[in-house]
Amino acid sequence: MRVKSILLSAREGSDWTVPGVGWEGFRFFAPPPSGVRTRPLGGRGREWTVPLREGGGALRDEKKLPPSPNAHALAPPPFPSFPYGLRALAGGSRYCVHVRREGWANMSTCSVSKGCFVFKPKSKKRRIASTADYFNDSKNDSEDSGLRFATCESLWKQIKSETEQIQEELNKQLYDNIIRFLRRSHSEFQEKKTEWTCRMKSSEIPTAALVLGVNVTDHDLTFKRLSEVLQDNVTPYVVSLQAKECPGIRHLLQKLMGQLMDCYVEDDQSEEEDYVTVSKKRIRCSLDSLTDWYECVTKKTDSETPSKKRTSSSRWESPPIVVIFKDMESFTTKVLQDFIVISSQHIHELPLVLIFGIATSPMIIHRLLPHSVSSLLCIELFQCLSCKEHLATVIDKLLLTSKFPFKLSEKVLQVLINIFLYHDFSVQNFIKGFQLSVVEHFYSQPLSVLCCQLPKAKKRVNSFSHEQCERIRSLPSFRRYVESQVSEKQIALLTEDNFVKEVTQILLEDLHIYHENYFPVLKCLHIFTSSLPKYPLGKQIRELHCACLEKRVWETEEYESALQLVRMLCKADLVAMLQKCVKIFMSFPGKEFGNTVEKLKEFLAQFQNLEAEASKVQDEPMSSQKELQKKTDLYHLQKTLLQLKDSRSKKLTKFEMLRFEVVDFIDSLVRNYLAPAEMQTLHEVVYFSAASTLCEHLNAAPRTALHTALNKPYFYLKNQALKSDAGCFSNKAPDICIAYKLHLECGRLINLVDWLEAFSTVVTAVKGTDADSVASDEVDEIIHARFIRAVSELQLLGFIKPSKRKTDHVARLTWGGC
Amino acid sequence: RAPHVLGARRLAKKLENISDDEEEQEVLEQQSYVAVLGAGAQDSCRNGPWAGGGGEVYSFQTPKRSGKMAELGMFSFLSWSNELLVGSCLNLLNIYFLVPDFHSESESEYSASCSEEETPKETSDEVFDRKTPDKSRVASTPSMKKTPAKKLKGDKTSSLVEEYFEAHSSSKVLTSDRTLQKLHSRKLDQQTLRDLLSKAPPTFGAEMKELSQQYESLFSKWMLHLHLGFNILLYGLGSKRDLLEKFRTSLLQDSVHLVVNGFFPSITVKSVLTSITEEVLDHVGTFRSPLDQLDFIMKKFKEDSSLELYLLIHNLDSQMLRGDRSQQILAQLSSLPSVYLIASIDHINAPLMWDQAKQSLYNWLWYETTTYSPYVEETSYENSLLVQQSGSLALSSLTHVLRSLTPNARGIFRLLAQYQLENKDNPSYPGLSFQDFYQQCREAFLVNSDLTLRAQLTEFRDHKLIRTKRGVDGVEYLLIPVEVGTLTDFLGKEDEDV
Questions:
Q1: How far apart are CA B324 and CA A479, in angstroms?
Q2: Residues of A in contact with B379 (CB under 8 A)
Q3: Domain tally, chain B
Q4: What's the CA angle centered on B396, arms B390 and B401, to 5 degrees?
Q5: In a domain, B413, yes or no
Q6: From the CA of B348, how many Å to the nearest CA of chain A?
Q7: Which CATH number do you get for residue B302?
Q8: What residues does the Origin recognition complex subunit 3 insertion domain cover (chain A) (predicted)?
Q9: How far is it, in rounded angstroms, from Cα A343 to Cα A256?
Q10: ipTM reported for the complex, 2 dp
């Protein structure tokens, strides 16, 4: 056989590869020279990496390479003569020759032979870059960024643990119910195991259908926690299955057994391990083998438990195997059916319990499973707390409390709620948005260093530098405050740092007190407004909160109408509400509300008295009734009726008087305490208000952005040439914009030639004058190339695709503008 | 000549009808669509950066100009070719641009060309004359068109829907039949394209630089977000490759990172995973499936908290990575707390790749980075180019593979290639049957048994140089899956060498 040597050609800035062919039949005749690294490739063969030397000298020192991008512009060192001839042998063993010049290749990530590039730092001692390093905003690198970051982190940690706790509490009931269900179904299994009559019945698999709602993203956490709870309290054998892991029954069983044996291994590690690892490979995945395994395991634990594990009383003998189907709707019908039918055959030996996670409605079980199969299940339904209630709790615990110093402004809260309501119903995402706003706030607002507990914040104010004081002075709300002061004080505020610090401390305290008062009154107002017909101020407390944050709530029409409605409430309702309010105010520790509570109690007492008085008052209307009956004359009747009406409207009953008093009292509370946050001085310190940033990052509109960029380049490229009146389109726009504009005119298919023609007409019009010099049937090559580029870019963006329906046509993929 | 005239006349008639009714309607519908989009945009991102431009962005031309230009366009097409259909010319030269006095100039120019080139001069001139006053009337009363547009707003959505189905209902395509064959420079290969583009003057360099500087100032913020558990997704017009490269070279030099070119035509998730296991984790061994591999990676990263990996993916939405399974794996990978993913997307429908579950795994923070820089690398692979499939890569790979083979093997391939070229005009050419091929090779003293031939064929097949197909009669047919032009070039080159 003939041997032919291969020339390696080099292209600057990229790997040196055998051009055109990645895989070749090559072999090194000599053993690989020193410095050549070899590495097995996925299939057959090895990859050789050859460090190249500059002019035969030492390896190029990477550190000396300038990190600037013009490193590419440096002339590459000459390709050295390769000491060992790289020879190719047809039909020999196969290698891939992949010559990469190290150092240079470090800079480049384009290659015709591969798409993944791994880069490792050269120095062994890695600089430990902490997150805090990136916290520094380059614009105003203030000295306190470290402190801010620490504050941010600790605050977020607190919030996070709080949310987890909320989640836990909310789901506790559900978990308890499921455990009770397991216990019950399992006891049946144990007791009636021997009875023949129950054998018939016991081919039914106990099943818990868990309706979780459409917020799929939150389910993971629920299931994770559920399996933990079950493992702690009921059984070590808990398996979670996802539809995407189980395309067939075989995969399902594999996954099932794999997870079961894993948890078995975890349970008692020492001697069983080899047994399991061996069996894991060997055992055919079937329920028979699963049954054998189960028997073996339970026997062992039975014999061992007296000595070892009697302490945990919660562990039962022959614990059930719980199989959780996380997303039941996504499973293929056949897999589910097969699994259920097969396992129902084994139910006497294998205490199997299924849990279906359902996102839609329990009806889906019957739609997925035919009657013959679903009759094998003994289904009990469990309802998870709805995501809306979950959100309400989260908002209540995170936002409507003065526990956390950080607050959201009305717009931000609105954005987050809108994303929740109109996009995903995901509490998880809401919390993510909340996290982002925390981070953004601390990152962008230098004074957020004061966004911590009051005593700490006061201390921090004391150690403020002059610059930071200047920052306080430049806050809009502080400026407003200064303007409202007398002139001497104004001067002092603007010139003396110490005075500013003092005032800031006082203002921070005011802000704190404002919050402490705000939330109880808000909740109190919510009690009154939440049960009114048509809910003028919203049904949920978050809506009321938004309304109060937005502007002075007592000036709005909705508030007016709400008060009108409250004035018409009946006594029983009013009393109940007042009692609730008392409870709320009592639960808040501030002494501010001592008087309020007393006043409310007084009202309640008066209502009580009314009842006593009521019996006395009853006579009067009775007498008038009697009078009414006496009159037979129509004229007189009318007159007395009018009199009655007058007297009624003039003379209010005691109850009505009292009711007005109550409403006025509530109104005064609202006016005193529910002023919008934006009116408070220093609110910028604790309120995050950049709603647009949040919206941009969480709820982006990539298509709108593309369309804007293509349709109105001036939005991004601030060039006067692109500025055009509304309606017209500049022909100096980037090529892709012109091509896009032209394609909007077309129908389903676009003729490339016509498109090109139109494109060149527009483009040559830029040059303006010499349209004649271009021959009518000859298209300028450069314009052609530009057109090609624009078209292939449009293809990459997904606006068009090649079509085979007609030669030289492309199909349009978007619709509109036609 | 007769059908010629007839055609032109029919066209003229058609034009008359269309220009009066349809065009007017078209403008209306255009505007109503604009209204829909504008309203939608304003609603959806009231707080977004588009707050100012929501409505304006979508506005089109004044109807006056569009009417006139359309007319001009029609006549210019008329002068070029007779077989044009109305649809395409109406559509395609309905271009709007700001050229002072372009209108009056070109009008005279076009009418001149009409009279020169068109043989049925009278007819077309007549048409032109008859139509001009008609047109100008329409054009001079643009306000008339605008008023009903407002009325239409009520059922704008339904009209939009109807429009869509109308356009897709008929299988007839109203475009001209011209092909690129007729143009001189109809096909360019990659190299010439690059050369030509480098000659083209760069536009808006300063503005683009300003944009990218604006984005570069966000680098540290990106790092912050990455470290806080978010992943970064870049979107917007223009290649984001340079931006990401700059990010990589300026901030990631001291950490382990993996760059994935999503636009690379043969990238797979498996190769991404393999890069991680083999080069980052230094693991030797194979895996049964990507899922196993993923499990392994996740386990490793969970065990060792000091492991960190920055994952840069250019074009996460590329053909090869957009599949559900790939996205699932990448999403799971990115959900690891010590894997930091920063990716870019370009396709307009890219967000459709992800359902809620995947999105929550990815935990994206979106960043708009509109750069306007050309997609050089992204479109440099031949498959993404629409207009010119040069086959130069195929040719060079052919040459290189064959150069490493024995002369006999080359001879065998030549035989097959020649035979295929002889049959290039036969559309139903099935390929060369193995028996015939063997006979020919034997006659040329290239092989001595069919076993040797088969061995050679295996070699070819491994390099994807030939394809075998079984015919209906069970005979094996051999075919070179390369275009005729490339094959001719190849044989020509071979002859030169010899």
A1: 55
A2: 789, 792-793, 795-796
A3: 2
A4: 145
A5: yes
A6: 6
A7: 3.40.50.300
A8: 461-691
A9: 12
A10: 0.78
Q: In terms of C-beta density within 10 A (0-12 exposed, 13-18 middle, 19 or more buried), how is residue B41 classed?
A: buried
User: What pLDDT, on a 0 to 100 scale, did the predictor assign at position A208?
Assistant: 92
Q: Which of A119, A134, A696 sits opposite B257 (nearest CB)?
A: A119
Distance CA B241, CA B238 (A): 9
Tell whether the model's pLDDT for residue B227 goes beyond 80.
yes
> What integer pLDDT is reported at residue A384 of this predicted model?
87
CA pair distance B215, A91, nearest whole angstrom: 53
- Cα angle value B107/B111/B112 (rounded, 5°): 115
Instruction: State the Cα–Cα distance between residues B318 and B375, nearest whole angstrom.
Output: 13
- The answer to whether the CB atoms of B200 and A785 lie below 8 A apart is yes
Residue type, A241: L
Mutation site for A-interface testing, chosen from B387, B392, B408, B454 by largest number of A Cβ within 10 Å: B387
- Domain end point (choices B368, B397, B427): B368
Measured in Å, how far apart are chain B's first and last C-alpha atoms?
55
Mutate to test the interface with A, among B85, B97, B108, B230 (most CBs of A within 10 A): B97
Residue B318's domain spans which residues? 205-368
Cα nearest neighbour of A791 on chain B: B386
Are B220 and B364 part of one and the same domain? yes
Quick one: B237 and B357 in the same domain? Answer: yes
The residue among A28 and B400 whose pLDDT is bigger is B400
Please check whether residue A808 is in contact with residue B180, taking contact to mean a CB–CB distance below 8 angstroms: yes
Looking at the domain assignment, is residue B216 inside a domain?
yes
Q: What is the pLDDT of residues A30-64, one digit of tens each?
A: 344 444 444 544 444 444 444 433 333 333 333 33
Chain A neighbors of B87, CB-CB under 8 A: 747
The first and second tokens of residue B318, run together, are 């590329």
Best A26, A212, A387, A745 residue to mutate vs chain B (most B CBs within 10 Å): A745
Chain A residues whose CB is inside 8 A of the B34 CB are 817
**Residues B209, B353 within the same domain:** yes
- The distance of B438 to chain A (nearest Cα, Å) reads 20
- Candidates A110, A135, A709; nearest CB to B370: A709
The pair of structure tokens assigned to A242 is 């996802």
Confidence band for B161, pLDDT divided at 50, 70 and 90: confident
| Phi, psi at A238, each rounded to 5° | -120, 125
Q: Is residue B108 part of a domain?
A: no
Cβ B392 vs Cβ B381: under 8 Å: no
* Chain B residue at shortest CA distance from A691: B47
Q: Which residues contact A510 (CB under 8 A, 6 or more apart)?
A: A680, A681
Residue tagged 């009325």 (tokens): B151
* The residue to which tokens 């080359």 are assigned: B410
Burial class (CB in 10 A: 0-12, 13-18, 19+), B476: middle
CATH code of the domain covering residue B465:
1.10.10.10
Beta bridge partners of A27: A87
Question: B371-396, pLDDT tens digit by residue?
Answer: 989 888 887 765 544 445 555 667 77
CA distance A219 to B356: 11
Strand (E) or helix (H) holding A38: strand A37-40
Please report whether residue B32 resides in a domain: no
- Residue numbers in A near B53 (CB within 8 A): 708, 712, 715
B260, B267, B370: residue with CB nearest A705: B370
Q: CA–CA separation, A147 vs A594, rounded Å?
A: 38
Compare A735 and B183 and report the one with higher pLDDT: A735
Is the predicted pLDDT of residue B333 greater than 60, yes or no?
Answer: yes
What does the pLDDT look like over A162-178, one tens digit per residue? 999 998 898 898 999 99
Low-confidence ranges of chain A (pLDDT < 50): 1-38, 40-106, 265-282, 304-315, 769-772, 774-778, 817-818
